[in-house]
Amino acid sequence: MSQTARRSFLKSAGLGTLALSVGQRSVCAAKANDKLIIGVIGTGGMGSNHVRTLAKRKDVEIAYVCDVDKNRLTAAAESVSSIAGNMPRPVDDLRIVLDAREVDAVFIATPDHWHVPAALLSLEAGKHVYVEKPCSHNVREGQLLVEKAQQSGKVLQVGTQSRSAPFLKEAIQRVHEGEIGEVLVAKAWNSQRRGSIGKTKPSKPPEYLNFDSWVGPAPMVAYRSNLLPSIWRWWYAFGCGDIGNDGVHDIDVALWGLGMNLHPSRVSCLGGKSFFDDDQQFPDTQYSVCEYPSQDTSEGKTRRLIFEQRTWSPYKQEGYENGVAFYGTKGLMLIGHTHGWKLYAERNKLIAEAKGRPMLDDHYDNFFACIRGEEKQPAASAAIGHFAATICHLSNISARVGRVLNFDPKNETISGDDQANQMIRRQYRESHWAVPRGV
């Protein structure tokens, strides 16, 4: 991009001279300093956490920040400058980040409907990818993500940071080593008090927001004040409900402990709006049961994963707002997402416990070590993320159609239910540049 064109773009983006102070880093310079050059795409809630945490690290440099909200974009750039001492280049089009040869990896913290489109484009551009959870907006997108990650030769890490937490690794190891006997059932839950998003009508987007770019490859809708920021996750077209927001963390841990490296064969979910009278489309009350065929054909036993959600609960379930319980034939492992774990033997005897919470830096360490070739596998690969996200998607579909779903774990299709099977995909905006191929 020429300097004239660059100034024109920045002026139209409302960023003034903030970005003009950013120098062009060469690949050689980055490698000489042994720093990975990073671009952060999406600088809102979780994106701002990434910006602040990454800016403190000495092994990376944030060279680009990208957002369609000018206020958030400016704040992100200034945050990097104040913490790290370098001014990243702020842009409102992710393609500028992907075109930058010096960028080694991108962090994608957009709304859910942008996760896979942005990740696929990033992998195609030769970037390593850290993508927030849930890793997909629908089942088909998850399939494409797994395929592209395998083909690309690049590292892809999903933002379910529990996978890198030392205290959780110990808990899961104890489960796998049989300390609570044979585990036949795992239960994950999300019980907390959310707020109402109210009821609104379409209105004009604020001037600081490029709403057309925000919608991106999704079908165009009218802007409304309770659609964003953050509230998008309660709308079918853009989010996956709270099961895909908070619940997916605990579902992922439940799968980890069960040792399930496949999809469920049956899913049944009852859910609806029992509490909130507002515009949100996803359930505020949701109960899902997933059944897994035995991975040992001689054993013949099934495993079950249960998920419970009440986003109106003013109390904690079993002491934790978000948690997982593994029910074994000889005991119980109880995990609090941000607290720790307790291991109970028979007759409710507490025999071990530990405190802890997942930390972003632990997950970053694994991601960067994989990029540098120091570790072989990301803790939360595309496949791992896809297994957890698919439970969220199938549970939401089952709640919407009101039926048990028979799922083919190999072909990843819903059998005998055309209406439900159509919902493993989504509609896209015609001819938009970010629509994934093969959807």
Structure description:
- The chain is an alpha/beta fold.
- It has 2 domains: 3-161, NAD(P)-binding Rossmann-like Domain (Rossmann fold); 163-358 and 380-422, Dihydrodipicolinate Reductase, domain 2 (2-Layer Sandwich), CATH 3.30.360.10.
- Helices cover 33% and strands 20% of the residues.
- The protein has 13 helices and 16 strands.
- It has a 10-stranded mixed β-sheet. Strands 3-2-1-4-5-6 form a 6-stranded parallel β-sheet, sandwiched between helices.
- Strand 1 (36-41), helix 3 and strand 2 form a beta-alpha-beta unit.
- It is globular.
- The two termini are 32 Å apart.
Low-confidence stretches: 1-32
CATH C-level name of the largest domain: Alpha Beta
CATH topology (fold) name of the largest domain: Dihydrodipicolinate Reductase, domain 2
In N-to-C order, the SSE pattern is: HHEHEHEHEHEHEHEHHEEEEEEEHHEEH
Beta strands, count = 16
Strand order of the largest sheet: 14-13-12-11-7-10-9-8-15-16
Rounded to the nearest angstrom, the distance between the terminal CA atoms is 32 Å
Gyration radius (Cα, Å) is: 22 Å
Strand content: 15-25%
Shape: globular
Give a quick account of the main beta sheet: strands, pairing sense, barrel closure.
10 strands, mixed
- The number of distinct structural domains comes to 2
Q: What is the CATH superfamily classification of the largest domain?
A: Dihydrodipicolinate Reductase, domain 2
